[in-house]
Write a structure and sequence with these properties.
The protein is an alpha/beta fold. It has five helices and four strands. Helix 4 links the parallel strand 3 and strand 4.
Length: 109
């Protein structure tokens, strides 16, 4: 069975561009033989990040998913607060964190 990789990349700010990039990061991860898991592409489909209760619930669901992942891969040039929370959680859980440069992704995809 293929291992799941938690895709950690920016979402807030320029949501349209960040969503496009997250899809590219998932494609890269899948191309490496892993199952990409990007909750920030899924949860905004039915949850509102601007509603505090829904944002908090989404963060808890993210952590539930993270616990089941083999590694967390960090993508993008900036690291948002949400990304820092995911990285910290992975470290506390003993889940390896890998930083992937945009150059690696561009070469591949």
């Amino acid at each position: 069975m293929e291992q799941m990789i938690f895709v950690c990349s920016p979402y807030c700010g320029d949501v349209e561009t960040n969503t496009k990039l997250a899809r590219q990061y998932c494609r890269y991860t899948a191309g490496k033989g892993f199952i990409p898991i990007a909750p920030h592409l899924l949860f905004p489909q039915f949850m509102d990040d601007n509603i505090t209760e829904e944002r908090e619930r989404a963060i808890q669901m993210n952590l539930g998913i993270l616990k089941r992942c083999y590694e967390l891969w960090v993508f993008g040039r900036e690291t948002t607060i949400g990304m820092w929370q995911e990285i910290k959680a992975a470290q506390e859980l003993g889940i390896p964190v890998r930083y992937v440069s945009d150059a690696e992704v561009t070469e591949c995809c």
